[in-house]
Amino acid sequence: MNLIETFQDLVAQVPEFVQPLIVALAAAVPFIEGEGAASIGIIGGIHPVVAVIAAVIGNFACVAILVLAGAGARNAVVTRRRNRTRELVPAGGDAPASLESDAPQVDAAVSPRKAKFQRALVRYGVPGVSLLGPLLLPTQFTATMLAAAGVGKVRVLVWQAIAIIGWTTVVAVLVSGVVYAVG
Questions:
Q1: What residue numbers bound the domain in which 138 lies?
Q2: What does the angle CA 164 – CA 28 – CA 113 come to, to the nearest 5 degrees?
Q3: Which of 77, 41, 80 has its CA nearest to residue 57?
Q4: Quick one: which of 38, 39, 156, 183 is 20 to 30 A from 81 by CA?
């Protein structure tokens, strides 16, 4: 039995008032996310609006935690690098420009995936990466990478919220149409 079937069975076995909680928990799982969780809920008999709201809340809560953690980790690294730079520079001396920058440093030996992400970020910006990202990667991964790249937390969270609501709603409308057409 796979994870999706497990969540479907769980939705069918718990009382009706607990079912949205199961949908929210499923939405926090990468690759299931809001779209899959809303589908699980709708197929399990939950009203589509309730399933979408629960899925959006579960997916966004997980993304928010990861963005805050990713931004905090980046801040700690930048602060540590800045403090180390101050220790290396003699009093009254100037640090090399490469050591003073808060901008993400591009290593010559950057991984192909990171380089691909950086190109997409430059080409499409935060809105494009957030809205198109779910086609390739879970929102949890995309949001964490944006935060780690130095994009502001609020900006990442706003665009991720828009993407989560949009994708979850579109998929839920499609699934609802199929479920109600067949049933």
A1: 3-182
A2: 75
A3: 41
A4: 156
d(CA 128, CA 173): 23
For the chain, the domain total comes to 1
pLDDT, tens only, 54-86: 999 999 999 999 999 989 888 888 888 888 877
Residue 64 tokens read as 């928010």
Q: Is the pLDDT of residue 90 over 90?
A: no
Which residue would you say has higher pLDDT here, 79 or 170? 170
A 10 A CB-CB count for 54 gives 25
Hey, what amino acid is at 25? Answer: L
Q: Is the pTM here over 0.85, yes or no?
A: no
* 13 token code pair: 């076995």
Tell me whether residue 7 is exposed, middle or buried, using C-beta atoms within 10 angstroms of its C-beta: 0 to 12, 13 to 18, 19 or more. buried
Contact of 156 with 143, CB cutoff 8 Å:
yes
pLDDT for 128-156, tens place per residue? Answer: 999 998 888 899 999 999 998 889 999 99
| Residue 104 pLDDT | 47
- Identify the three-state secondary structure at position 179: helix
Using alpha carbons, list the distances in angstroms from residue 29 to 4, 136, 162. Answer: 10, 16, 19
Count CB-CB contacts under 10 A for residue 51.
30
